[in-house]
Amino acid sequence: MQLTILALVFSFSLNIFAENDTKTSSASKNCYVLSAKRVFDGFDLHKNAAVLVNGNKIVQVGDPSQLNRSCSRKMKLGNATILPGFIESHAHITFQNIPGDKVLKHGITTVRDTGGPLLKPMGGNGTLRILSAGPIIQAVDGYPLNLFGNHGNETPSSDKYGTIGVAVATIEEAEKAVIDLVAGGSMLIKIALEPGGETGAPWMSSHGHAAPPQTPWPLLSLDIVKAIVTKAHSLNRKVAAHVGENTGVELALDGGVDEWSHIPCAEISDDLLQRAVEQNVTFVTTVDSLSGCTGIHANTHKLAHIMSHSTDSKSKFIYGSEIGHDNVPWGINGEEMVLILNLTSPDGIDFGDVLRVFKSVTSEAGKHLDNPLLGTLLKNAPADIIAVRGNPFERFKLL
């Protein structure tokens, strides 16, 4: 009976919307106004505000009484918080066969798939937006193919861009891989600089198979790393590196890599962390998924301290939870946000630090994807909107 009543109420509401629409201009027929006690636009938190949407685009965030004059269809959410859809900057949903609708349902509207089959950009307009990096460029017999092979993916092994990694042995092979990946839809070039052996690293477990191969694992040469970065930049793509310890970090820095896909697992020397900030590296966090690592908390805290005293640096933290790992949720990870807040606030926590965490998973993440409207509620941004009861700025777990 309750479900029937709810269905009737919803149907009645839609009929009222449709009736009221006849009184609006044709340009407003697809509009609606969402209002709530709080609206976060990707930059600032607004109290008792509303969002005007037309079609699949944001029109404006503002005062409800004013925006209500622009559109007759209204939804009042009360003691809730409206936010732009969250951006997951490190996931393996395709390789791990994670259902996109599950991820979308739990607050993530854009996923950057950083290691898996190569796909053209897809989604949006009501489905999960997926931006693929494609397979990780690695050394022959190195990580990740030495652990994963074609496991977890039904793509034929003859398709070298259909699994989690692609091995290269020469500069020519590396440059061709970059060209092929970009032509196939890759939005990011990712490389593995992982010799293995870090205590607590997930990649040092068996992953349900035999014990991992003996370390150290082969690494790409510096010349190959530089060639990958140069070619990727010429094609307007950033390069991210999977790094976990000093050797890989130094190689990434010498090669001019733009991003670390993780905060490294083993504790990194202070001089290399200082270099990373000076070179404007972006750090994707994944602190929760790598919580067993011995150095990740110290690395995050030290980087935050260096960044807080480097006013000229453009380094920043971007939220990443590594959807695809068994120990993290298929959606927003409140624990990742808590860890980012606690570990990247070296001078104590204030509301500005809380805002910074929310920006790292919305507007700053969109900017890093070279799409400054993504992760915002700015005019003409895609209407990726989520809402949660209560105030998640006081309690991340609500998300």
Topology:
Layout: H1 2-21, E1 31-40, E2 45-54, E3 57-62, H2 64-67, E4 74-76, E5 80-84, E6 86-91, H3 100-105, E7 108-113, E8 122-124, E9 127-132, E10 136-139, H4 145-148, E11 165-168, H5 171-183, E12 189-193, H6 222-234, E13 239-243, H7 246-255, E14 259-260, H8 270-278, E15 282-284, H9 296-308, E16 316-318, H10 334-343, H11 351-360, H12 363-368, E17 385-389
Parallel strand pairs: 1-4, 1-5, 6-7, 7-9, 10-11, 12-13, 13-14, 14-15, 15-16
Antiparallel strand pairs: 1-2, 2-3, 5-17, 8-9
Helix pairs in contact: 5-6, 6-7, 8-9
Question: What do these coordinates show?
Answer:
It is a single chain. It is built from twelve helices and 17 strands. The chain has 399 residues and is an alpha/beta fold. It has two domains: 14-84 and 376-399, Urease, subunit C, domain 1; 86-374, Alpha-Beta Barrel (TIM Barrel), CATH 3.20.20.140. The longest helix has 20 residues, at 2-21. The radius of gyration is 22 Å and the shape is globular. Strands 1, 2, 3, 4, 5 and 17 form a six-stranded mixed sheet that branches. The protein has a five-stranded parallel sheet with strand order 12-13-14-15-16. It has a four-stranded mixed sheet with strand order 6-7-9-8. Helix content is 30%, strand content 22%. It has helices at 2-21, 64-67, 100-105, 145-148, 171-183, 222-234, 246-255, 270-278, 296-308, 334-343, 351-360, 363-368; strands at 31-40, 45-54, 57-62, 74-76, 80-84, 86-91, 108-113, 122-124, 127-132, 136-139, 165-168, 189-193, 239-243, 259-260, 282-284, 316-318, 385-389. Helix 6 packs across helix 7.
